[in-house]
Amino acid sequence: MQAEGIRNISVIGAGFIGPGIAQIFASKYYTVRLMDIKDEILSKAIGSIRSNLSLMARKELLPESEIDAIMAKIKTTTDMSEATSDVQLVIECVTENLELKQKIFQDLDQLCPPDTILATNTSVISITEIASKTHRRERILGTHFWNPPYIIPLVEVVKGRETSDETVETTYQFLKAVGKHPVKVMKDVPGFIANRLQHALWREAISIVEHGIADAATVDEAIKNSFAIRLPVLGPLETADMIGLDLTLSIHDYILKYLESSPNPSPLLREKVKRGELGFKTGQGFQTWSAEEAQRSRENLLEYLLDRMRRE
What is the pLDDT of residue 221? Predict the structure, then answer.
């Protein structure tokens, strides 16, 4: 099946990220069925999508006159059979629970047409394990969208052990056609690409705080005002090539032995979670946050992402 053969899409799970994924395809005028087990979750999801579209219209990212037409392309249901009839692509977006995902993919295996591509939005669980109890493992792959998915371009297209090359290529080309920035992950490893890199940075950042080298606010300040500025146009490996791999090797020969290499989460992180210091949701994490400060941080992020989207 070619990318242009995809007409109807089903998104399973209307909680955290599913609505934003449904919005992407509806905005390109594909028919989308958004499925969840509770009507109230679906109702909230539809409200969230309309709110997102209204915000994008205010930012001049789409005409306000298109909102109703986009919303009309999204149909909600609590019935898995209804959600999956005559679909060419299904994206599962339920909670990160292996047994639940395996059960859903077993159901999809039985309900969907034989040529349907079955994708999971998992950010950490093995695609191969999710697919292991189905009979069409060659049609199952990962499509890891980043939140908010209708703004952040990246989608990691992850090949499971038995995923066919055709399934990967069809999905990759389709995501590209709807305006996303897909990348192919050709080996099914925990964290795929971007989360592995992100959490390697977090591990070192937490370690710096844990060992009293600098406080949390200073760590964030140092990152935001140094290499983070150039990351949108200069990736780490491009930087290494730019400065020279001989210099990179010399630096690594000296510094790597001093960097955090523990395979376990930081004791400081464990202690904070044990004390209920969970970040924005409790007002205390690595830093102290009032409700107003937490909300301002969220709003600043959304404004930055939308402004970047408009520039591009």
Answer: 98
User: Which entry of 144, 162, 207, 266 is annotated as an active-site residue?
Assistant: 144
Model confidence at 4, pLDDT cuts 50, 70, 90, reads: low
Mark whether 144 is an active-site residue. yes
Q: Tell me: the pLDDT tens digits for 68-80?
A: 999 999 999 999 9
Tell me what the pLDDT averaged over the chain comes to: 96
- Please pick, among 123, 162, 207, 266, the residue that the annotation labels catalytic: 123
pLDDT at 262 over 60: yes
Burial (CB < 10 A; 0-12, 13-18, 19+), residue 131, is buried
**70 CB contacts (<8 Å, ≥6 apart)?**
23, 26, 27, 29, 53
Alpha-carbon Rg for the chain in angstroms: 21
Does the domain made of 3-185 have the CATH classification 3.20.20.80?
no
Q: Which amino acid is at 271?
A: E
199 is catalytic: no
Catalytic residue among 195, 210, 260, 277: 195
- The helix (run of H) or strand (run of E) holding residue 153 is none
pTM here is 0.93
Active site residue 156: yes
Residue 150 has pLDDT above 80, yes or no: yes
Phi, psi for 142 (deg, rounded to 5): -100, 140
* 157 has pLDDT over 70: yes
CATH assignment of 193-265, given 1.10.357.10, 1.10.1040.10, 3.40.50.1820, 3.30.70.360? 1.10.1040.10
| Catalytic residue, candidates 156, 162, 207, 266 | 156
Annotated catalytic residue 211:
no
